[in-house]
């Protein structure tokens, strides 16, 4: 019997444990019972991108995009509105939304809005109501950065609506500082758009 039209879907779940070697092979769940310092250290290891994955991401970027992201040509003018952005607990500021993931910071005025929903795997989407795009349509403020993807080396998901493309902001450190954010104090907590695409392709 042929298998035409048959498709088997798999769910992939990553589970992490804390293990002490060589004293014991017992596995401990990564939770608050480990103590604040050890729990924080384990979470840091979990979210840190490995050298192997960085190489895969670089190869994927070259293979899929054909070229590296270009520096934005958009002339950003930041408003002196006194807005300060916290380092965590962000929320979409669109009335009635309340999403706390897939959030983008507008580098003109500090507005925080959710992005569009993205396919993660077959039948599964990330959350997003496209409120930042709607905000751009209403204001014309083009340059945005995805909160949670900002790394101390300056890597981050940056998008220019005016250029309709993912770009590099060479002045990201300065632009974040305008809203009271020190890039050296930020940690990557969300997958980048490229990582989400890579995960989807691998699945």
TrEMBL record:
UniProt cross-references to PROSITE patterns, sorted A to Z: ZF_UBP
Keywords annotated in UniProt: Metal-binding, Zinc, Zinc-finger
Pfam families tied to this protein: zf-UBP
Single Gene Ontology MF annotation: zinc ion binding
Entries under InterPro entries matching the protein: Znf_RING/FYVE/PHD, Znf_UBP
Organism domain of life: Eukaryota
Domain named UBP-type: residues: 67-183
Gene3D superfamilies registered for this protein in UniProt: Zinc/RING finger domain, C3HC4 (zinc finger)
Descriptive protein name: UBP-type domain-containing protein
Native species: Mesorhabditis spiculigera
Taxonomic lineage: Eukaryota, Metazoa, Ecdysozoa, Nematoda, Chromadorea
């Amino acid at each position: 019997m042929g298998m035409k039209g048959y498709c088997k879907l798999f769910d992939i779940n990553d589970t992490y444990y804390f293990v002490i070697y060589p004293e014991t092979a017992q596995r401990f769940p990564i939770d608050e019972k480990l103590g604040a310092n050890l729990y924080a250290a384990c979470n840091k290891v979990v979210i840190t991108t490995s050298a192997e994955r960085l190489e895969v991401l670089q190869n994927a970027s070259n293979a899929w995009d054909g070229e590296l992201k270009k520096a934005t040509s958009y002339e950003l003018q930041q408003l002196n509105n006194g807005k300060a952005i916290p380092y965590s607990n962000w929320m979409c500021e669109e009335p009635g939304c309340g999403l706390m993931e897939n959030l983008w910071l507008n580098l003109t005025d500090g507005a925080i809005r959710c992005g569009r929903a993205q396919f993660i795997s077959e039948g599964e989407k990330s959350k997003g109501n496209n409120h930042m795009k709607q905000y751009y349509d209403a204001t014309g403020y083009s340059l945005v950065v995805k909160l949670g993807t900002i790394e101390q080396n300056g890597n981050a998901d940056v998008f220019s609506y005016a250029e309709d493309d993912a770009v590099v902001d060479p002045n990201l450190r300065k632009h974040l500082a305008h809203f009271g954010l020190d890039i050296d104090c930020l940690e990557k907590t969300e997958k980048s758009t490229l990582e989400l695409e890579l995960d989807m392709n691998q699945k």
